[in-house]
UniProtKB/TrEMBL annotation:
Entry cofactors: Zn(2+)
Keywords: Carboxypeptidase, Disulfide bond, Hydrolase, Metal-binding, Metalloprotease, Protease, Secreted, Signal, Zinc
InterPro entries tied to this protein: CARBOXYPEPT_ZN_1, M14A-like_propep, M14A_act_pep, Peptidase_M14
Protein name (Swiss-Prot/TrEMBL): Zinc carboxypeptidase A 1
PANTHER family from the UniProt entry: PROTEASE FAMILY M14 CARBOXYPEPTIDASE A,B, ZINC CARBOXYPEPTIDASE A 1-LIKE PROTEIN
Domain Peptidase M14, first and last residues per copy: 121-411
GO cellular component terms, semicolon-separated: extracellular space
Source organism (scientific name): Anopheles coluzzii
Main location: secreted
PROSITE patterns, sorted: CARBOXYPEPT_ZN_1, PEPTIDASE_M14
Signal peptide: 1-25
Amino acid sequence: MASISVVGVSVCCLLAALSPALVQAEMARYDNYRVYKLNIESVEQLQLLQLIEHHSDGYTFLSDPVNLNTTVKLVVAPHKAAEFGEFNQRFSLNAEVAFENLQALIDRQLRGRRETFGWTAYQTLEDIYAWLDTLIEQYPDVVSPIVAGESYEGREIRGVKVSYKQGNPAVFMEGTIHAREWISAATVTWILNALLTSEDLAVRNIAENYDWYVVPVANPDGYVYTHTTTRLWRKTRSRQNVLCYGADPNRNWDYKFNQGGTSTIPCSDTFSGPSPFSEIETRTLSEYIRSIPNLSTYLDFHASGQLLMIPYGHTTEPLDNYYELMEIGTKAAAKLQERHGSIYKVGNIAEIIYVASGSSLDWVKGTLQTPLTFAYELRDTGEYGFLLPPEQIIPTAEETLDSVIVILEEGKAMGYH
């Protein structure tokens, strides 16, 4: 009887600890958490890492262990150091320490906060939304507010429409559907600013001859959570059960749902959700995208890996205009490389990164038949991943805009607009 009583008390305390109404969360710290770089060379190693991912107490993957002959980053908590040392030896992981102290890397990302909005630092959701309001006031004839959806916690998925004249083909540009990929939101806002302020003729051409629907943060709850509570959070914040929150909002779209590259385990970072469009963010965002007239181009921004990807994620079979998109993407990547030397790979999602079904990119192409559909994995190729230092924001955005210009120009030459 005594043991039952103790268990009952423990569960009660656990439930109290998990109740958002009872406990004010503080920002998680990762002091002395090591980040390891691992090359997956055997099936046994892959199975081990996937098992660790599914039972992840004390471990967090910064890139998913999906395929053989790939490299992943794994965060190991101090209390798991001895255990991981045993795994490393037993399974010949040959783990290399990428960073001795994850918190030092996060602190570096948080440097440079300014009173005025800019791109020398990463921006909070509040700052981004306030800046959008400023643009609407400054450019009333060109910029108008849009609400592209809503979130589980009641936030609006806000953005703006930039339109210099009627009758333009439409471009939808979104960022930060994965909450922790801060460079995505920063790149989208920088490009938006360039569309309004740049005097470069190529930028003015695309700014004034397309209607731009721009959503910097497609997952506002998750994005806020990365700034206030857990920097490494990726998913939405919907409650799945007493322990697990959120679904991967880029595995939750209703096109080839759960056809590979997803998890059915609610605590997993790649949990697809219990059903297609179970997440209000993806459901309402899809409804908004569907309503956009004359949509010719969809651009989705992620991090990291330096990839320019086209549909689909569930199969390597070529889509209807595969070769045209590959030609456009190859030219765009070549242009991107010119400014700062960054090398991007181009290809089908399943070909060049991993199988990943239920993405927004696939839904826009497969359901809406939008002809030009590209997803970026922005800088870098593994050193910092999505914890990219803020001094790389502007160079990343500059080279990305160069490539976007090529995508639109080449798409127009092929008759897609």
